Request: fold
Amino acid sequence: MHRVCSHSKHMTPGAITYRNPNSGATTVAGEPTGLGEIAGACGFDPGKPNPARIYDYLLGGKDHFAADRRAAQRLVSALPDAARAARANRVFLTAAVRYVARRGISQYVDIGAGLPTSPNVHESARSVVPAARVAYVDNDPVVVTHARALLATDDFVIVVKGDTREYEAILAGPELNALIDLSEPVCVLFVSMLHFLTADEADAVVAAFRERMAPGSYLVISAGHDKNQQVREQVQTAYGDAAVLTGRPAAEIAAYFDGFDLVPPGLVPVTEWPLEEPDVGPRPRIWPGSPAPMAASMLAGIGRKRG
Reply:
């Protein structure tokens, strides 16, 4: 008998969840039970923090363990606006997908998809293109199991277990190719995940997808912007030694869009991205007003492939 990897059902009944009014992060009072069983089934150590589950915590989700919450709290200590940045990043993803869908794109590949958070890519795309096809790709066993249970609702939404660093295997794999036709325009998303790769790894995976995308395709990226070495070291400490953390200068993030025309307003802080239709004039921004500069710097952009 095959064992199914899942941990949400093991959360302690009656656990209390509350939101920090300053950081926006959610705290859970109560420990998940059965960690040994969960770890054995999924092949991971729940005592080690995981970027996907830390992100889930910052978004106010419930799919995280004590180690993830402790790491997230250290992250918020280093970057008090980390939860705000995570929420803005998620709003950018939704706005970007809807923007691309309005341009007639009906197929999407979400690389490093993370734990399901509604509205997900297929929900956002299908609000505009009901027949949109979506492939979610992630290598985390908890993410993959949750995503297959919650997202793969029909034959046109799939979850591919794959390590981004092994991009050739993903691109050549039968799962992806059965659903996504890269000879036709496609939207590929690298949202809040490239900074968890080394610079060389990130450059290679983006280039591999970029080169195979048909003209008229869209590339959606948000990535950590390295502007403060001391803060970066504190963030690395929060995530732990097992996690790679690579912030990039703005020029290097812009280089991901080589061969693509950036959609206005271009490559900007994620909080400055328009909520809807960025190329048709002034629109409300994700974070209205003129907030103080964020320590948790994320740059975001959408590019359309020339040709």
